[in-house]
Structure formats: C-alpha cells, structure tokens
Design goal:
Shape: elongated
Order of helices and strands: HHHHHHEHHEH
Structural class: mainly alpha
Radius of gyration: 23 Å
Strand content: 5-15%
Largest sheet: 2 strands, parallel
Mean pLDDT: 86
C-alpha cells in the first residue's frame, strides 16, 4: 500500500497517538486511515483495526527486546535440532523445552551429558522459545556468571546482581561443571 499524503486531521491524530504512547500506530496512521476510508469501515471497526495494529507492533517489539535481553551467543531453534544425532533427547523432552511449561511450574531442568553431545543447542533454543513467548530469559555460561558474581561481591553490589538474576523467568546456565570453581565462586553461584 502506498502512503497517502498526511492531512491536517491525520497530523492531529498522529500527535495524539504520540502523546498517548501509541508509538506503533502513529507512523502507520495515514495508511490505516486510507484503508478505513477505502473499506468504508464503521468507527468501531476502524478503532478495533487501529488498536489491533498497535498491539501487534508492541508484541513484536517486546519479543525483539526479550530476545536481545537473553544475550544468546547465537540463534538456535528446535526446528534445526537434529534429534537423530542425539538419541538421548526424546521428542517429549523437546516438546517440554519448547512449550516452557516447566517455567510456569518453577521446575528446574538439567541437561546432562559429555562435551559435544548437543546440550547447548536445545538450551539456547529453549531460551529463544521462552523469549518469543514473552518470558524474561537469560543465557550465560557458568564461568561468566561466577566471574560476574565475584566482581559484584568485590565491588559491594552483589545484592543488585542477585536481584537482577532473580527477575528472570528462565535462567539458562551452560557449561556447568566444565570449569573448576573455587569455594567463593561456588557459594556465590549457589545464591543464584
């Protein structure tokens, strides 16, 4: 659809949208109004159409924010996971991780296996799926988390860092057990 030139009315409506924080709707207003006129939408249908667009845009922005917040090292999905390469991860486990029902139940999930057995892929995919479903997620390695906690303790702001991690719906800690942790790091990690 080509954008029609703004009118005095749509300019006022644009300003009103901005004032009301309808920032997704505001740039699309001219196009939406032209569509409403062309389709001869009733006022309530136009309002419903416009608000649905705002909601969709907000949902997409939130999804993108959640994915960035997760700090994933790379994008991995369940669609690209080869279950034939690892027979220890069943389709039921994949479904559990993909739906994230364990998050609502506050159930921990542990993926165990030797190095190179494909644990990181489903872990990252779980974070991505949860983030796309609006959950606050964070991916980190055990070493990164332990280092961050030690630095926070040394800088006297451990409480803030622990609180920050407590706000996530899903905290995915990769490479647990690969790095030897000293007693201080292990105790700090236990707080999380």
């Amino acid at each position: 659809m080509t954008k029609p030139p703004p009118t005095k009315t749509t300019t006022k409506a644009f300003d009103a949208c901005r004032d009301q924080n309808l920032t997704g709707l505001a740039p699309e207003l001219d196009t939406i109004c032209a569509h409403a006129i062309k389709q001869r939408l009733a006022y309530q249908d136009f309002l419903s159409y416009a608000l649905t667009i705002e909601i969709d845009i907000r949902h997409e922005r939130r999804r993108q924010r959640r994915i960035l917040e997760a700090k994933l090292p790379r994008i991995k999905t369940f669609d690209s996971f080869d279950t034939a390469a690892n027979h220890n991860i069943s389709p039921q486990t994949i479904a559990l991780l993909q739906t994230g029902t364990f998050i609502e139940k506050s159930e921990p999930v542990v993926l165990l296996g030797n190095s190179g057995t494909g644990k990181s892929h489903p872990l990252i995919a779980t974070c991505l799926a949860a983030a796309e479903n609006g959950k606050r997620t964070r991916y980190t390695t055990c070493a990164q988390l332990a280092n961050e906690l030690c630095e926070a303790k040394d800088d006297n702001h451990l409480g803030r860092v622990v609180q920050k991690y407590g706000r996530y719906d899903l905290l995915a800690i990769d490479e647990l057990g690969y790095v030897h942790l000293d007693q201080k790091s292990a105790e700090l990690l236990f707080q999380i």
